[in-house]
Design a protein that fits this description.
By secondary structure, the protein is mainly alpha-helical. About 60% of the residues lie in helices and about 5% in strands. It is built from 10 helices and 2 strands, in the order αααββααααααα. Strand 1 and strand 2 form a beta hairpin. Helix 1 packs across helix 10. The chain is globular and about 60 Å long. About 35% of the residues are buried.
Length: about 290
Amino acid sequence: MTYPDPTVFGLDPWWLIVVKAVGVFAFLLLTVLVAILAERKLLGRMQMRYGPNRVGPLGLLQSAADGIKLALKEGLVPAGVDKPIYLLAPVISVFCAIMAFAVIPLGPVVSIFGHRTPLQLTDLPVGVLYILAITSIGVYGIVLAGWASGSTYPLLGGLRSSAQVVSYEIAMALCFAAVFLYSGTMSTSGIVAGQTQTWYVFLLLPSFAIYLTAMVGETNRAPFDLPEAEGELVGGFHTEYSSLKFAMFFLAEYVNMATVAALASTLFLGGWRAPWPISLIGAANTG
């Protein structure tokens, strides 16, 4: 069996589930560190400066140093906040962001310590709808952060975020519907298996273009960064957050970026399959 079958999920021993979960978590952390560094390097070049180049060779450890710095900062809780909700909000955002990646297929069925298992934490018959649902729940973290901070700017940022998510998820859902009709399934591994001959990006180019726009708005990135617009709302919904709590919002944002990008590849670009001409190498698509 080369491609994941829904019946193979849930049969792994507990230790293999733990190994896969830790692997996915480590992959997301590494992806976030690399994405932050690449973004800062690119912005530096656009502004005719070097960007991070001090910590580690060529500045490669700058993101890790920033994470350690935020973790070691003093955690302040402003007066007048609703403390339980204030502390719970970043946890909700990070938890939902990481859980959304659970159904993203990273490869075919492979052998790990003698056990045949798909390179995917789990899958559901409605896997894509699960991602849509869990990311929608993650918005509660932003809304609650704005409300619990007891300040005007965070509250306005939270309200903007809720309105923006509702707006862009409608467009995303319509793009998903087109893929569902072509593949005949809502399972992420099934959608990847349905692109064996032709990637859906060639059949659904308008849907792909709409999804690319909607996913930028869904993750609150420029130019759709209304919930945290510095020029209008100081820092938006996380204005009153510092230390590790601020880092958790930062982590959730970049994990969401990785998730929507991986979902774009899963739905439209053949998933984990190598593109041509690398796909001509047999081992590239068999694991």
